[in-house]
Amino acid sequence: MASSTPAPIVIPPSQDFDGNDGPWSSFYLEIGSPAQDVKVLISTAGYQTWAVVPQGCVASDPPDCATLRGGLFIPSQSSTWSYNNASINGTFTLELETNLDFSGNGDYGYDTIVLGYQGSNGPSLQQQTIAGIATKEFYLGVFGLNPRSTNFSTFDDPVPSYMATLKDRSMIPSLSWGYTAGNQYRPGTVLGSLTLGGYDSSRFVTNDVTFAFNQVDERDLTVNIESILMTTSNNTVHLLNNSIAAYIDSTIPYFYLPLDVCQQFEDAFGILWDNDVQAYLVNDTLHKSLQTQNATVIFSVSNTTHSVSISLPYAAFDLIAEYPLVTNTTRYFPLMRAMNDSQYTLGRAFLQEAYIIADYERRNFSISQCSWDPGAQESVVAIESPANSEASGKLVAGTDTRGLTSGRIAGIVVGSIVGLLFVVFLAFRGKRKVTTNVDTGFQGKPELAAKDAPLFHGDKTSNAKTLGLDGGSDRERELDSYMHPAAELEASRDIQEMKSNEEVGIELAISNLQVSELPS
C-alpha cells in the first residue's frame, strides 16, 4: 500500500464497564472547548454522537447519576458549541431504534469531538453533529459508526457524519471499521476493541465468509440466522425452527427474536417472561442452576451460501439490570419478544463473542468468532479504499471468492443497481411532514408510583408506563436520516457535574500497525 495512505486508528476503551443493562466496555470522547470528557457506548447503527446533558439527571435520580450515565456534557460551558437552527432550539426526535419502540428527543448542535480521553492525541474534528440527550431510554451516550449523513431540513442539505469526515480528510484509509463489545466474564476481563479504517486480526478467528449489505440502508448489517442450538455436556436442543433475517446492532444489548423462539429459550433455560417488567428476570436460584448447567448457545448465521457459527456461553446472557430499568438491581436474560420481523435483532450481547468488520465502500461485512488467546499481540490491518487499490473488487478479510459464478456476479451487479436506485429515490422524495406535538423528553417526570412496575423496552400495548423522561411520538416513523423537529427544551434543570477523577485509559494505539493488501 502506498506510503501516503493513512493508517487505521485504534480507539482505546475507557478501562471501565458502564451502563444500567450490562455493564459494558465504554469509550471516552472529548467534546467542546475546553474539552469535557464523557463515556459512551458504540453504536453500529448510529450515525451521530449523543451525549447526556444535565437535564438527564434530576432530583429523584441517584446522587451519582452523572457518573452512572458516563459524565455530562454541558453545552453552555463550551465556547465552540452552536445550536442547530433548523428547529426551535435545535430539538429533534432521536431517529434510532424507533422500530424497537425506543423513543426520545435530542438537543442538537455542533461542536468539536475528539475520540479518546484527554491527552491521548485522538482524532479531532470540529463542527460535528451532537445530540444532547436526557432520555433514560439510552442511559449512556453513543458514538455512531455508520457513515450516513444527517438531514435536518431537507435531503438537499446533508450534514456529514464523523466517519465520513475522517475519510474525506484522509485521516483513515477507508470507510470501514472493526469492533467487538468486550465482556467481563472472560479471565482478566476483556475490554472492547474499536478500529477505524481497518481491524485487529488478533481479536477473532478468521473465516472465509462475507456478507453483502442489505439493500435497505437502515438494516445494512443483516444476516440470515439458519439455526440456534443450546448445548450442554449431555444434550442439544434446537431453538429455531425456521431461518430468519436479523439485524446486528450494538446500540441495544438485547436479542429480539420471534415469540416461538423465545418460548424455546424459556423451555431450555427455565426463564420466565415478566409481563409487568417486560423482560426475563433471573433470580439467584435460577442463576446458580444455569451456571451449573453451563450451556452454550450457538448461532449459525449465513449469507445464503456459506455460514459462520458464533458460540456464546451462558455468561454472555448473564446481565445486570439497574435503575431505572428496575427498582432493585437484578440479573436478567437479554432476550426480547419481537412483535414482527422488522424487530429481529442481534444486539450488543451478541458482540461479546463476535467480531464484526464493516466496509462501506465495498458494501460488505464479516462476522467472526472472537479469539481468546491471552498471549495474542494486537495486529492492526488496514482496509484499503477501492479507489486506492488496483484490485478494487477485493472484499474485507475473510472474503470467500471461490464461488463467484457468472450468475452470482450478475446478481451482485443487479443488486448494486437496485440499491443505488433506492438511494436516489430517498434523495428526491422530498421533505417529510414534521412532528409538532412531541414531548421534549426533558420534563423531569416523577418516577413510577409503587403500584406501577418499571418497564424494559417492550410491548407498547402494555398498560404499564415506561420509566424515564421521554415519551416521544407514538406515530409510525420511517427509519432514515431525516430528523424530525420536536418541542422546545426547558432551560432550568438540576445539573450535576461529571466526576473528574475517573481512571485514565490507555493511549491511542496508532503506531506499530500492520498494513497489508486485502486477501484476494
TrEMBL record:
Keyword Ion transport (UniProt): no
Any single GO CC term annotated in Swiss-Prot or TrEMBL for this entry: fungal-type vacuole
Keyword Membrane in annotation: yes
Transmembrane segments: 409-428
One Pfam family this sequence matches: Asp
GO molecular function annotations of the record: aspartic-type endopeptidase activity
Keyword list, A-Z: Membrane, Transmembrane, Transmembrane helix
Family listed: Belongs to the peptidase A1 family.
Listed name of the protein: Peptidase A1 domain-containing protein
Organism: Letharia lupina
Lineage: Eukaryota, Fungi, Dikarya, Ascomycota, Pezizomycotina
